[in-house]
Model the fold of this input.
Amino acid sequence: MPDNVVNSEIAVSARNISKTYGEVEALKNLSLDFPRGQLTSLLGPSGCGKTTLLKIIAGLLEPSSGQVVVGGKTVTGPGADRAFVFQDFALLPWANVLRNVAFGLELRGVAKSERENIAEKYIADVGLAGFEKSFPHELSGGMRQRVGLARALSVDAQVLLMDEPFSAVDEQTRRKFQEDLLQLVANENKTFIFVTHSIEEAVYVSDQIAILLPRPSRVSDIIRPTGLREKDVGTIRRDPEYLDIVDQIWASLKTYVE
Amino acid sequence: MKVFGYRLPGMSSLIIWALLWEIIGQIGFSFFVPPLSDVVSTLFEILPSAAFQKALFETGYAFSAGVFFAVVIGIPTGIFMGKSRLIDELLLPWVNIFLSAPLTALVPVLMVLFGFGMKSIIITTTLFAIWIIILNARAGVMQIDRSLVEMARSFGASAWDSFTKIYFWAALPEILGGVRIGIIRAVKGVIIGQLLISIVGFGALFELYSSNFLMSHFWAVLIVLFALAFSISEVLAFLERKVAYYAAKR
Done:
Protein backbone atom coordinates (compact mmCIF):
# COMPACT_ATOMS: atom_id res chain seq x y z
CA MET A 1 0.00 0.00 0.00
CA PRO A 2 1.20 3.57 -0.66
CA ASP A 3 1.74 5.96 2.20
CA ASN A 4 -1.30 6.99 4.05
CA VAL A 5 -2.10 10.14 2.11
CA VAL A 6 -3.73 11.97 4.98
CA ASN A 7 -0.59 11.75 7.11
CA SER A 8 1.98 12.33 4.40
CA GLU A 9 3.58 15.73 4.17
CA ILE A 10 1.88 18.49 2.20
CA ALA A 11 4.15 20.10 -0.41
CA VAL A 12 1.76 22.65 -1.84
CA SER A 13 -1.29 24.08 -0.24
CA ALA A 14 -3.86 26.35 -1.87
CA ARG A 15 -5.85 28.20 0.79
CA ASN A 16 -9.15 29.96 0.11
CA ILE A 17 -8.13 31.02 -3.38
CA SER A 18 -10.49 33.35 -5.22
CA LYS A 19 -9.84 34.87 -8.58
CA THR A 20 -12.09 37.32 -10.37
CA TYR A 21 -11.66 38.88 -13.79
CA GLY A 22 -13.80 41.99 -13.57
CA GLU A 23 -17.29 40.64 -13.02
CA VAL A 24 -16.41 37.03 -13.72
CA GLU A 25 -15.58 34.76 -10.81
CA ALA A 26 -13.10 32.19 -12.12
CA LEU A 27 -12.26 30.62 -8.75
CA LYS A 28 -14.21 30.94 -5.52
CA ASN A 29 -12.77 30.17 -2.11
CA LEU A 30 -10.90 27.12 -3.35
CA SER A 31 -8.74 25.13 -0.94
CA LEU A 32 -6.68 22.10 -1.91
CA ASP A 33 -3.62 20.27 -0.57
CA PHE A 34 -1.01 18.56 -2.71
CA PRO A 35 0.89 15.72 -0.97
CA ARG A 36 4.67 15.64 -1.42
CA GLY A 37 6.07 13.14 -3.90
CA GLN A 38 2.71 12.44 -5.47
CA LEU A 39 0.85 13.38 -8.60
CA THR A 40 -2.34 15.36 -8.21
CA SER A 41 -4.56 15.95 -11.23
CA LEU A 42 -6.83 18.93 -11.62
CA LEU A 43 -9.69 17.58 -13.68
CA GLY A 44 -12.77 19.33 -14.93
CA PRO A 45 -14.72 20.58 -17.91
CA SER A 46 -13.29 23.47 -19.90
CA GLY A 47 -13.74 26.82 -18.22
CA CYS A 48 -13.55 25.35 -14.73
CA GLY A 49 -10.46 27.40 -13.89
CA LYS A 50 -7.99 24.53 -13.59
CA THR A 51 -5.33 26.30 -15.64
CA THR A 52 -6.00 29.51 -13.70
CA LEU A 53 -5.36 27.63 -10.45
CA LEU A 54 -2.16 26.13 -11.86
CA LYS A 55 -0.89 29.55 -12.93
CA ILE A 56 -1.70 30.98 -9.51
CA ILE A 57 0.36 28.19 -7.93
CA ALA A 58 3.13 28.97 -10.44
CA GLY A 59 3.06 32.62 -9.39
CA LEU A 60 2.22 33.71 -12.93
CA LEU A 61 -1.18 35.00 -11.83
CA GLU A 62 -2.08 36.68 -8.57
CA PRO A 63 -5.12 35.45 -6.69
CA SER A 64 -7.74 38.07 -5.84
CA SER A 65 -7.75 36.65 -2.33
CA GLY A 66 -6.30 33.66 -0.52
CA GLN A 67 -2.79 32.31 -0.71
CA VAL A 68 -0.64 29.49 -1.98
CA VAL A 69 1.97 27.98 0.32
CA VAL A 70 4.83 25.99 -1.20
CA GLY A 71 7.29 24.30 1.15
CA GLY A 72 6.13 26.50 4.03
CA LYS A 73 6.50 29.77 2.14
CA THR A 74 3.72 31.92 0.71
CA VAL A 75 3.95 32.34 -3.06
CA THR A 76 4.47 35.92 -4.24
CA GLY A 77 5.69 35.16 -7.76
CA PRO A 78 7.55 32.54 -9.79
CA GLY A 79 10.22 30.76 -7.80
CA ALA A 80 13.02 28.21 -8.06
CA ASP A 81 10.93 25.66 -6.14
CA ARG A 82 8.48 25.28 -9.04
CA ALA A 83 8.91 24.50 -12.75
CA PHE A 84 6.25 24.74 -15.43
CA VAL A 85 5.55 22.49 -18.40
CA PHE A 86 3.48 24.29 -21.03
CA GLN A 87 0.64 22.96 -23.14
CA ASP A 88 2.11 24.52 -26.30
CA PHE A 89 5.68 23.58 -25.25
CA ALA A 90 6.87 27.24 -25.23
CA LEU A 91 10.25 26.49 -26.78
CA LEU A 92 12.51 29.20 -28.17
CA PRO A 93 12.26 28.62 -31.93
CA TRP A 94 15.63 30.29 -32.53
CA ALA A 95 17.51 28.07 -30.09
CA ASN A 96 18.52 24.44 -30.40
CA VAL A 97 17.41 21.67 -28.03
CA LEU A 98 20.47 22.04 -25.81
CA ARG A 99 19.94 25.77 -25.23
CA ASN A 100 16.20 25.31 -24.78
CA VAL A 101 16.68 22.67 -22.11
CA ALA A 102 19.36 24.76 -20.42
CA PHE A 103 17.28 27.96 -20.67
CA GLY A 104 15.79 27.69 -17.17
CA LEU A 105 19.31 27.36 -15.76
CA GLU A 106 20.54 30.17 -18.02
CA LEU A 107 17.93 32.49 -16.48
CA ARG A 108 19.09 31.41 -13.04
CA GLY A 109 22.64 32.46 -13.88
CA VAL A 110 24.26 28.99 -14.03
CA ALA A 111 27.55 29.04 -15.97
CA LYS A 112 27.37 27.84 -19.58
CA SER A 113 29.46 24.66 -19.32
CA GLU A 114 27.74 23.59 -16.11
CA ARG A 115 24.21 24.18 -17.37
CA GLU A 116 24.97 22.38 -20.64
CA ASN A 117 26.27 19.36 -18.73
CA ILE A 118 23.07 19.24 -16.71
CA ALA A 119 20.94 19.78 -19.82
CA GLU A 120 22.70 16.94 -21.67
CA LYS A 121 21.90 14.56 -18.84
CA TYR A 122 18.19 15.40 -18.93
CA ILE A 123 18.07 15.36 -22.74
CA ALA A 124 19.32 11.77 -22.51
CA ASP A 125 16.85 11.01 -19.71
CA VAL A 126 13.84 12.02 -21.81
CA GLY A 127 15.19 10.01 -24.74
CA LEU A 128 16.42 12.79 -27.00
CA ALA A 129 20.15 12.00 -27.00
CA GLY A 130 21.57 12.92 -30.41
CA PHE A 131 19.08 15.75 -30.93
CA GLU A 132 20.99 18.36 -28.90
CA LYS A 133 21.75 20.46 -31.98
CA SER A 134 18.28 20.16 -33.54
CA PHE A 135 15.87 23.06 -33.61
CA PRO A 136 12.29 22.83 -32.35
CA HIS A 137 10.78 23.06 -35.85
CA GLU A 138 12.74 19.96 -36.83
CA LEU A 139 11.10 17.90 -34.09
CA SER A 140 7.70 16.23 -33.81
CA GLY A 141 5.16 17.47 -31.28
CA GLY A 142 5.98 14.65 -28.89
CA MET A 143 9.70 15.34 -29.06
CA ARG A 144 9.09 19.05 -28.47
CA GLN A 145 7.20 18.28 -25.29
CA ARG A 146 10.09 16.06 -24.18
CA VAL A 147 12.28 19.14 -24.57
CA GLY A 148 9.82 21.12 -22.45
CA LEU A 149 9.85 18.36 -19.84
CA ALA A 150 13.66 18.17 -19.82
CA ARG A 151 13.81 21.95 -19.31
CA ALA A 152 11.48 21.72 -16.32
CA LEU A 153 13.42 18.77 -14.85
CA SER A 154 16.83 20.36 -15.31
CA VAL A 155 16.14 23.21 -12.90
CA ASP A 156 15.51 20.53 -10.25
CA ALA A 157 12.44 22.16 -8.76
CA GLN A 158 10.54 20.35 -6.05
CA VAL A 159 7.18 20.96 -7.69
CA LEU A 160 6.40 20.28 -11.34
CA LEU A 161 3.39 22.11 -12.75
CA MET A 162 2.05 20.58 -15.95
CA ASP A 163 -0.62 22.36 -17.97
CA GLU A 164 -2.30 19.77 -20.21
CA PRO A 165 1.16 18.73 -21.32
CA PHE A 166 0.03 15.88 -23.57
CA SER A 167 -3.00 17.48 -25.21
CA ALA A 168 -1.06 18.68 -28.25
CA VAL A 169 0.56 15.34 -29.08
CA ASP A 170 -0.91 12.39 -30.92
CA GLU A 171 -2.64 9.51 -29.15
CA GLN A 172 0.19 6.94 -29.34
CA THR A 173 2.76 9.44 -28.14
CA ARG A 174 0.40 10.46 -25.38
CA ARG A 175 0.14 6.87 -24.08
CA LYS A 176 3.92 6.54 -24.08
CA PHE A 177 4.16 9.85 -22.23
CA GLN A 178 1.69 8.70 -19.60
CA GLU A 179 3.73 5.55 -18.93
CA ASP A 180 6.93 7.60 -18.75
CA LEU A 181 5.23 10.02 -16.37
CA LEU A 182 4.40 7.17 -13.97
CA GLN A 183 8.09 6.19 -14.06
CA LEU A 184 9.06 9.77 -13.36
CA VAL A 185 6.73 10.08 -10.38
CA ALA A 186 8.09 6.82 -8.99
CA ASN A 187 11.76 7.70 -9.50
CA GLU A 188 11.94 11.41 -8.75
CA ASN A 189 10.87 12.56 -5.37
CA LYS A 190 8.92 15.48 -6.75
CA THR A 191 5.41 16.77 -6.38
CA PHE A 192 3.46 16.84 -9.65
CA ILE A 193 0.43 19.01 -10.31
CA PHE A 194 -1.16 17.99 -13.55
CA VAL A 195 -3.98 19.72 -15.38
CA THR A 196 -5.97 17.60 -17.78
CA HIS A 197 -9.42 17.39 -19.31
CA SER A 198 -9.12 13.66 -19.96
CA ILE A 199 -10.77 11.47 -17.32
CA GLU A 200 -8.86 8.37 -18.43
CA GLU A 201 -5.55 10.21 -18.34
CA ALA A 202 -6.24 11.57 -14.86
CA VAL A 203 -7.16 8.16 -13.44
CA TYR A 204 -4.20 6.51 -15.13
CA VAL A 205 -1.47 8.84 -13.88
CA SER A 206 -2.78 10.24 -10.58
CA ASP A 207 -2.33 9.53 -6.90
CA GLN A 208 -5.04 12.07 -6.23
CA ILE A 209 -7.65 13.58 -8.51
CA ALA A 210 -9.29 16.88 -7.66
CA ILE A 211 -12.50 17.36 -9.60
CA LEU A 212 -13.25 20.99 -10.29
CA LEU A 213 -16.68 22.20 -11.23
CA PRO A 214 -17.20 25.48 -13.02
CA ARG A 215 -18.83 28.86 -12.51
CA PRO A 216 -17.43 29.64 -10.05
CA SER A 217 -14.90 26.91 -9.64
CA ARG A 218 -14.63 24.88 -6.49
CA VAL A 219 -13.34 21.43 -5.68
CA SER A 220 -16.35 19.15 -5.84
CA ASP A 221 -14.61 15.89 -5.04
CA ILE A 222 -11.21 14.37 -4.33
CA ILE A 223 -10.58 10.82 -5.50
CA ARG A 224 -7.56 8.68 -4.61
CA PRO A 225 -7.11 5.68 -6.90
CA THR A 226 -4.99 3.98 -4.25
CA GLY A 227 -4.88 0.47 -5.65
CA LEU A 228 -3.61 1.30 -9.12
CA ARG A 229 -0.01 2.21 -8.25
CA GLU A 230 0.81 -1.42 -7.46
CA LYS A 231 -0.45 -2.66 -10.82
CA ASP A 232 1.66 -3.19 -13.89
CA VAL A 233 1.40 -0.12 -16.17
CA GLY A 234 0.24 -2.35 -19.03
CA THR A 235 -2.80 -3.71 -17.17
CA ILE A 236 -4.11 -0.61 -15.40
CA ARG A 237 -6.54 0.18 -18.18
CA ARG A 238 -8.20 -3.24 -17.74
CA ASP A 239 -8.35 -3.00 -13.96
CA PRO A 240 -11.89 -2.95 -12.47
CA GLU A 241 -10.92 -0.17 -10.05
CA TYR A 242 -9.68 1.97 -12.96
CA LEU A 243 -12.89 1.43 -14.90
CA ASP A 244 -15.08 2.11 -11.87
CA ILE A 245 -13.33 5.39 -11.10
CA VAL A 246 -13.55 6.53 -14.73
CA ASP A 247 -17.29 5.79 -14.70
CA GLN A 248 -17.82 7.49 -11.38
CA ILE A 249 -16.05 10.67 -12.52
CA TRP A 250 -17.93 10.72 -15.81
CA ALA A 251 -21.22 10.42 -13.94
CA SER A 252 -20.40 13.45 -11.83
CA LEU A 253 -19.11 15.58 -14.74
CA LYS A 254 -21.71 14.63 -17.33
CA THR A 255 -24.22 17.29 -16.30
CA TYR A 256 -21.65 20.05 -16.83
CA VAL A 257 -20.89 19.21 -20.44
CA GLU A 258 -22.82 21.28 -22.94
CA MET B 1 14.29 31.94 -65.57
CA LYS B 2 15.15 29.60 -68.44
CA VAL B 3 15.60 30.69 -72.06
CA PHE B 4 16.22 28.05 -74.77
CA GLY B 5 17.12 25.55 -72.05
CA TYR B 6 19.76 27.80 -70.43
CA ARG B 7 19.29 28.94 -66.87
CA LEU B 8 19.81 32.68 -66.73
CA PRO B 9 21.59 34.11 -63.70
CA GLY B 10 19.67 36.52 -61.47
CA MET B 11 18.97 39.98 -62.86
CA SER B 12 19.86 39.08 -66.42
CA SER B 13 17.20 41.53 -67.50
CA LEU B 14 19.63 44.32 -66.60
CA ILE B 15 21.63 43.36 -69.70
CA ILE B 16 18.65 44.19 -71.91
CA TRP B 17 18.13 47.54 -70.20
CA ALA B 18 21.86 48.30 -70.43
CA LEU B 19 21.77 47.55 -74.17
CA LEU B 20 18.72 49.76 -74.65
CA TRP B 21 20.45 52.57 -72.76
CA GLU B 22 23.55 52.21 -74.95
CA ILE B 23 21.49 52.32 -78.18
CA ILE B 24 19.47 55.34 -77.09
CA GLY B 25 22.71 57.05 -76.08
CA GLN B 26 24.45 56.21 -79.37
CA ILE B 27 21.64 57.55 -81.59
CA GLY B 28 21.84 60.83 -79.68
CA PHE B 29 18.23 60.79 -78.55
CA SER B 30 18.85 63.29 -75.78
CA PHE B 31 21.69 65.22 -74.35
CA PHE B 32 20.68 63.95 -70.91
CA VAL B 33 21.23 60.33 -71.86
CA PRO B 34 24.85 59.70 -72.84
CA PRO B 35 25.71 56.13 -73.93
CA LEU B 36 26.18 53.71 -71.04
CA SER B 37 29.73 52.96 -72.20
CA ASP B 38 30.61 56.64 -71.73
CA VAL B 39 29.07 56.59 -68.27
CA VAL B 40 31.04 53.50 -67.30
CA SER B 41 34.35 54.87 -68.53
CA THR B 42 33.63 58.14 -66.70
CA LEU B 43 32.85 56.07 -63.63
CA PHE B 44 36.32 54.52 -63.62
CA GLU B 45 37.80 57.93 -64.25
CA ILE B 46 36.22 59.60 -61.26
CA LEU B 47 36.37 56.68 -58.80
CA PRO B 48 40.02 57.32 -57.83
CA SER B 49 39.69 61.12 -57.91
CA ALA B 50 40.13 63.03 -54.66
CA ALA B 51 36.81 64.86 -55.09
CA PHE B 52 34.95 61.56 -55.36
CA GLN B 53 36.77 59.98 -52.41
CA LYS B 54 35.98 62.99 -50.29
CA ALA B 55 32.32 62.90 -51.31
CA LEU B 56 32.15 59.16 -50.61
CA PHE B 57 33.62 59.68 -47.17
CA GLU B 58 31.29 62.58 -46.31
CA THR B 59 28.21 60.78 -47.52
CA GLY B 60 29.25 57.49 -45.93
CA TYR B 61 29.85 59.21 -42.61
CA ALA B 62 26.49 61.02 -42.55
CA PHE B 63 24.70 57.92 -43.77
CA SER B 64 26.30 55.56 -41.20
CA ALA B 65 25.72 57.97 -38.34
CA GLY B 66 22.11 58.56 -39.39
CA VAL B 67 21.37 54.85 -39.73
CA PHE B 68 23.15 54.12 -36.45
CA PHE B 69 20.89 56.50 -34.52
CA ALA B 70 17.79 55.28 -36.34
CA VAL B 71 18.60 51.67 -35.37
CA VAL B 72 19.75 52.33 -31.81
CA ILE B 73 16.76 54.54 -31.00
CA GLY B 74 14.22 52.92 -33.29
CA ILE B 75 14.47 49.25 -32.26
CA PRO B 76 14.10 49.74 -28.48
CA THR B 77 11.34 52.32 -29.02
CA GLY B 78 9.45 49.88 -31.22
CA ILE B 79 9.90 47.04 -28.74
CA PHE B 80 8.68 49.21 -25.85
CA MET B 81 5.67 50.28 -27.91
CA GLY B 82 4.87 46.64 -28.62
CA LYS B 83 5.21 45.73 -24.94
CA SER B 84 3.44 48.64 -23.30
CA ARG B 85 -0.04 49.78 -24.21
CA LEU B 86 0.58 53.18 -22.61
CA ILE B 87 3.76 53.98 -24.54
CA ASP B 88 2.06 52.74 -27.69
CA GLU B 89 -0.96 55.02 -27.26
CA LEU B 90 1.38 57.97 -26.65
CA LEU B 91 3.75 57.47 -29.56
CA LEU B 92 1.87 55.66 -32.31
CA PRO B 93 0.11 58.74 -33.78
CA TRP B 94 3.44 60.54 -34.10
CA VAL B 95 5.16 57.57 -35.68
CA ASN B 96 2.38 57.24 -38.23
CA ILE B 97 2.37 60.96 -39.01
CA PHE B 98 6.12 61.08 -39.55
CA LEU B 99 6.13 57.86 -41.54
CA SER B 100 3.86 59.36 -44.17
CA ALA B 101 4.85 63.03 -43.79
CA PRO B 102 6.82 64.71 -46.59
CA LEU B 103 10.00 64.92 -44.56
CA THR B 104 11.74 67.01 -47.19
CA ALA B 105 9.47 69.87 -46.17
CA LEU B 106 10.80 69.58 -42.63
CA VAL B 107 14.42 70.02 -43.66
CA PRO B 108 14.33 73.85 -43.51
CA VAL B 109 12.98 73.59 -39.95
CA LEU B 110 15.86 71.27 -39.04
CA MET B 111 18.29 73.80 -40.53
CA VAL B 112 16.90 76.49 -38.26
CA LEU B 113 17.08 74.20 -35.24
CA PHE B 114 20.40 72.47 -35.82
CA GLY B 115 22.36 74.66 -38.19
CA PHE B 116 23.75 74.11 -41.67
CA GLY B 117 26.27 71.41 -40.88
CA MET B 118 26.73 67.71 -40.60
CA LYS B 119 24.43 67.55 -37.56
CA SER B 120 21.38 68.51 -39.59
CA ILE B 121 22.26 66.06 -42.37
CA ILE B 122 22.59 63.20 -39.89
CA ILE B 123 19.29 64.10 -38.24
CA THR B 124 17.59 64.22 -41.64
CA THR B 125 18.95 60.77 -42.45
CA THR B 126 17.76 59.42 -39.10
CA LEU B 127 14.31 60.94 -39.61
CA PHE B 128 13.96 59.24 -42.97
CA ALA B 129 14.92 55.81 -41.61
CA ILE B 130 13.62 55.60 -38.06
CA TRP B 131 9.81 55.42 -38.39
CA ILE B 132 9.59 52.22 -40.37
CA ILE B 133 12.17 50.64 -38.04
CA ILE B 134 10.00 51.54 -35.04
CA LEU B 135 6.81 50.25 -36.68
CA ASN B 136 8.38 46.95 -37.70
CA ALA B 137 9.96 46.29 -34.31
CA ARG B 138 6.56 47.05 -32.75
CA ALA B 139 4.79 44.67 -35.12
CA GLY B 140 7.37 41.97 -34.38
CA VAL B 141 6.79 42.25 -30.65
CA MET B 142 3.01 42.38 -30.92
CA GLN B 143 2.77 38.99 -32.61
CA ILE B 144 4.98 37.35 -29.98
CA ASP B 145 3.77 34.06 -28.55
CA ARG B 146 2.49 34.97 -25.05
CA SER B 147 3.49 31.62 -23.64
CA LEU B 148 7.17 32.33 -24.42
CA VAL B 149 6.96 35.40 -22.22
CA GLU B 150 5.16 33.42 -19.54
CA MET B 151 7.73 30.64 -19.81
CA ALA B 152 10.61 33.05 -19.25
CA ARG B 153 8.80 34.57 -16.28
CA SER B 154 8.07 31.18 -14.75
CA PHE B 155 11.80 30.40 -14.81
CA GLY B 156 12.56 33.65 -13.06
CA ALA B 157 13.46 36.00 -15.94
CA SER B 158 14.03 39.64 -15.04
CA ALA B 159 12.56 42.38 -17.22
CA TRP B 160 15.99 42.79 -18.83
CA ASP B 161 16.22 39.03 -19.50
CA SER B 162 12.86 38.98 -21.28
CA PHE B 163 13.85 42.02 -23.31
CA THR B 164 17.19 40.62 -24.51
CA LYS B 165 16.44 36.90 -24.57
CA ILE B 166 12.79 36.80 -25.69
CA TYR B 167 11.36 40.01 -27.15
CA PHE B 168 14.38 40.98 -29.25
CA TRP B 169 14.81 37.54 -30.81
CA ALA B 170 11.11 36.96 -31.34
CA ALA B 171 10.87 40.27 -33.19
CA LEU B 172 14.18 39.89 -35.06
CA PRO B 173 12.77 38.87 -38.46
CA GLU B 174 10.51 41.95 -38.51
CA ILE B 175 13.27 44.15 -37.07
CA LEU B 176 15.65 43.20 -39.88
CA GLY B 177 12.93 43.84 -42.45
CA GLY B 178 12.37 47.28 -40.94
CA VAL B 179 16.08 48.09 -40.90
CA ARG B 180 16.39 47.06 -44.54
CA ILE B 181 13.58 49.38 -45.65
CA GLY B 182 14.85 52.07 -43.27
CA ILE B 183 18.29 51.96 -44.86
CA ILE B 184 16.83 52.43 -48.33
CA ARG B 185 14.95 55.45 -47.02
CA ALA B 186 18.13 56.69 -45.33
CA VAL B 187 19.87 56.85 -48.72
CA LYS B 188 17.16 59.26 -49.84
CA GLY B 189 17.52 61.19 -46.59
CA VAL B 190 21.26 61.64 -46.78
CA ILE B 191 21.18 62.87 -50.40
CA ILE B 192 18.28 65.25 -49.75
CA GLY B 193 20.16 66.52 -46.71
CA GLN B 194 23.31 67.05 -48.73
CA LEU B 195 21.42 68.87 -51.45
CA LEU B 196 19.29 71.10 -49.23
CA ILE B 197 21.29 71.73 -46.07
CA SER B 198 24.87 72.10 -47.10
CA ILE B 199 26.23 71.16 -50.45
CA VAL B 200 28.67 68.41 -49.47
CA GLY B 201 29.32 64.77 -50.35
CA PHE B 202 27.44 63.15 -53.20
CA GLY B 203 24.89 65.94 -53.02
CA ALA B 204 27.65 68.39 -53.96
CA LEU B 205 28.75 66.13 -56.82
CA PHE B 206 25.19 65.92 -58.17
CA GLU B 207 24.87 69.67 -57.93
CA LEU B 208 28.25 70.25 -59.61
CA TYR B 209 27.72 67.78 -62.47
CA SER B 210 24.15 68.67 -63.29
CA SER B 211 24.73 72.42 -63.25
CA ASN B 212 27.71 71.94 -65.59
CA PHE B 213 25.79 69.50 -67.80
CA LEU B 214 28.33 66.72 -67.16
CA MET B 215 25.69 64.04 -67.67
CA SER B 216 28.09 61.05 -67.82
CA HIS B 217 29.52 62.12 -64.50
CA PHE B 218 26.03 62.61 -63.10
CA TRP B 219 24.88 59.14 -64.12
CA ALA B 220 28.14 57.55 -62.92
CA VAL B 221 27.65 58.89 -59.39
CA LEU B 222 24.03 57.79 -59.46
CA ILE B 223 25.08 54.26 -60.42
CA VAL B 224 27.60 54.18 -57.56
CA LEU B 225 24.93 55.31 -55.13
CA PHE B 226 22.46 52.76 -56.39
CA ALA B 227 25.07 49.99 -56.17
CA LEU B 228 25.89 50.93 -52.58
CA ALA B 229 22.26 51.05 -51.47
CA PHE B 230 21.52 47.81 -53.29
CA SER B 231 24.47 45.97 -51.69
CA ILE B 232 23.54 47.05 -48.17
CA SER B 233 19.95 46.04 -48.72
CA GLU B 234 21.05 42.64 -50.09
CA VAL B 235 23.27 42.00 -47.06
CA LEU B 236 20.25 42.64 -44.82
CA ALA B 237 18.03 40.49 -46.99
CA PHE B 238 20.60 37.72 -46.55
CA LEU B 239 20.46 38.14 -42.75
CA GLU B 240 16.66 38.09 -42.92
CA ARG B 241 16.75 34.76 -44.74
CA LYS B 242 19.02 33.42 -41.99
CA VAL B 243 16.32 34.00 -39.37
CA ALA B 244 13.44 33.11 -41.70
CA TYR B 245 13.60 29.49 -40.52
CA TYR B 246 11.82 30.46 -37.34
CA ALA B 247 9.87 33.48 -38.53
CA ALA B 248 6.84 31.34 -39.38
CA LYS B 249 7.08 29.23 -36.27
CA ARG B 250 7.12 31.62 -33.36
